[in-house]
Input
Amino acid sequence: MKRVSEKFYLSNKLPPYVFNVVNEMKAEARRRGEDIIDLGMGNPDLATPEPIVSKMIEATLNPRNHRYSASRGIPKLREALARRYSRHWGVSLDPDREVVATIGAKEGLAHLMMTVLGPDELAIVPEPAYPIHCQSVTIAGGRVLRVVAKNADDLLDKLSVAIKRERPRVLLISFPNNPTGECVNIGFFEEVVALAHRYGVLVIHDFAYADIVFDGYRAPSILEVEGAKEVAVEIFSMSKSYNMAGWRVGFCAGNSETIAALTRVKSYMDYGIFQPIQIAAIIALNECDEFVRETAREYEKRRDVLVDALAQAGWIVDKPRAGMFVWAAIPERFQSLGSLEFAKLLLSEAGVAISPGIGFGERGDGFVRFALVENEQRIRQAMRAVKRLLKG
Ligand SMILES: Cc1ncc(COP(=O)(O)O)c(C=O)c1O
Output
């Protein structure tokens, strides 16, 4: 039989996942019986709150919930998301026209980009970035312009120059940021929305870490800005706020034309999230605010343990005000290794898995990312091992 040509496969255009290198080493070490402390992937270790799990079980026992569900999300789920936005961010959303449920943020982002970006159209993405931010553009057949900035103010300056010159179709941003932990205030979004209005750009804001905030910081929604709904959509995820990463529930909310377009595309792609999960997610959004605050407090404690212990080892890094990660410049002595080799060294010599910054783009190569996904005691244990390595 003639072999099918793979020349045009989309997979050829997607780089291999850098994180797999460390993941495979981790799996091998574990097979050898070594105790590896895993601060690599941002995969929440805390349990989904009990009322959500109970509701899921109850709804699963009802055969009516076993059928195909609504691709765009059942009405009560979209209403619950709208209420959540009104309560937390003072944003009013029409659940029918301005909200669509997605199978997690990742699926939502990928299909959204396919929906809004035409062949060879340009999307601007600040770097370092969560990998799907750039790769969704490749999947959609578009072009990415990566913008590198020192901080949020610098980013605004660079974005305004790039948008004026390049006239992109889309700008994809995300704050609180993964991996850097960078946060912005509402003034930042006001400037972005003004730029989007001036140059006709669609802004996609990935708000996956909306609720994982520390030290009294409140993460603003871009939709709080007046006029934002004319130019922007926001992606909200249940994965981190409610420890529901495996459940796959997210949303896209905001600009009604964009929501209608994504809803149409998704109606051909999927039949919706398993209905018991949607029903349980309604309980989460309506009744679990205190669980969300507790989760944030837990990450805050872990952040303190990790950053303080690093400081004792002579590795000084800033405490992020939000997110699940500590983004750390590689210590001087190890800089020349680059982030992948340094991550491998930490794994083999200290038994600690972390993410190499290069996985978030070239600009990330001088850094590594610690995910706060082990308990305080395990983080302390990891930091003792890191200290030994640094002092050795
Ligand atoms: C910035 C960002 N967006 C989206 C996601 C994925 O969210 P979901 O689980 O809803 O697909 C992550 C997960 O790590 C993330 O860091």
